[in-house]
Amino acid sequence: MLRVALASFIGTAIEFYDFYIYGMAAAMIIGPVFFPEGNTSTQVLSAFLTFSVAFLTRPLGAMIFGHFGDRIGRKTTLVSSLLVMGISTLLIGCLPGYATIGVWAPVLLCLCRFGQGIGLGGEWGGAALFATENAPKGQRGVYGMFPQLGPPVGFLLATGSFLLLTYFLTEHQFKSWGWRIPFLGSSVLVLIGIYIRLALVETPIFAKVLKQNQRATLPIKEILSSYLVSLVLGALAMVICYALFYISTVFSLSYGVTTLNIPRQYFLGMLCIAVIFMAIATPLSAWAGDIYGRRPVLLTACSIALLSGFFLEPMMNTGKPLIITIFLSMELFLMGAIFAPMGALLPELFPAHLRYSGAGISYNMGGILGASFAPYIAQRLVSEGGLAWVGGYISLAAFISLLAIYLMRETRDNQW
């Protein structure tokens, strides 16, 4: 069980590290490197658009890897998704910029982001199933917590890597080559993750599916015909998770550095503190989900998240690092509280022979709605209406997820 927990955790940590370093880079350096010189705001918006590419392809990755995960097994599919993500991230670190190859630079960058989206789309569903399908009775929420701990750890590694670079490199060194180091370094982490996952055996629940020959010929077709409501509600439930996270990290980093003139290393340090609160909320919320049910925990956290949107403008615009750190910590704590039960809830919405596809597609469709254009939309809202509109965006996302969870049935006691 320790090996299962470690494999579920380390894979998502590595994959989200790869994903988050791009988010950090998009907020700081992608625009000037991969797009022509001009208006700084235009470069930032262009970088945020490339950020959205991977979210648009993640459901496709969930369909592809989910199909094979439900047909041939969780283990092989998980190793493959990690490899696709790792290669795509490594290539981003090697790409020449606009000054070298012109328009091909953003084109190749988008292709690499496409690969990242495909890889990450297949990752989470498999990791969640490996944890929950091996969980003892009554502990699916706690075991489903392990892949949910991967994102805060991955984000901490990503933020910490850029933070170290700001201390040891000059601005010129960082812009010319230093930003590539986190991308190139991810290859080492990927090799470690693959080594750990190759030692796994198939989950007992999927082994039972194979033994009873219950595999679906085309999982996505059966999901759309019989489990469409579960798919849609699961996706809508995830919206606030993504909105909270990417507004609090990618957008806030860009806004804090460029508009509030907070030094980059200070803001990265603030994010490192804030993400610890996400890690703290994750086991607490997962445990509460097993005790009280997924639905009550999620309804409470989403209601608080809805109210939190009203605090964004007054707290961020103080320009005071302490107050901003408190706000970011609050938002990421709420994100962890909502995100943790999803590790059990989304798989519980689907039967075993469709679970990889169903949970993965729901999870990643939520990313299109809540995260793909979140930094871009937030940047436009600031330009057109002010920071208070970004807070309204968070509240709207929370309301959507709150409504979806309200319409769901409780899944804690579902038989597997």
Walk me through the structure:
This protein is mostly helical and 416 residues long. The mean pLDDT is 89. It is 83% helix and 0% strand. α1 packs parallel to α4 (74-94). The protein has 20 helices and no strands. The chain has a single domain, classed as Growth Hormone, Chain: A, CATH 1.20.1250. The radius of gyration is 20 Å and the shape is globular.
Low-confidence stretches: none
Mean pLDDT: 89
Structural class: mainly alpha
Write the CATH architecture name. Up-down Bundle
Beta-strand residue percentage: under 5%
Count of DSSP H/I helices:
20
Total domain count: 1
Number of strand elements: 0
CATH domain topology: Growth Hormone, Chain: A
Radius of gyration: 20 Å
Largest sheet: none
CATH class: Mainly Alpha
Question: Mind sketching the topology for me?
Answer:
Elements (H helix, E strand, L loop, with lengths): L1 H27 L1 H5 L5 H32 L2 H21 L3 H4 L2 H29 L7 H4 L1 H24 L2 H6 L4 H18 L5 H8 L7 H8 L1 H31 L5 H29 L1 H15 L3 H5 L4 H28 L6 H18 L1 H11 L2 H21 L9
Name the descriptors.
416 residues, mainly alpha, Growth Hormone, Chain: A, 83% helix, 0% strand, globular
Give a summary of the structure in a few sentences:
Helix content is 83%, strand content 0%. By secondary structure, it is an all-alpha fold.
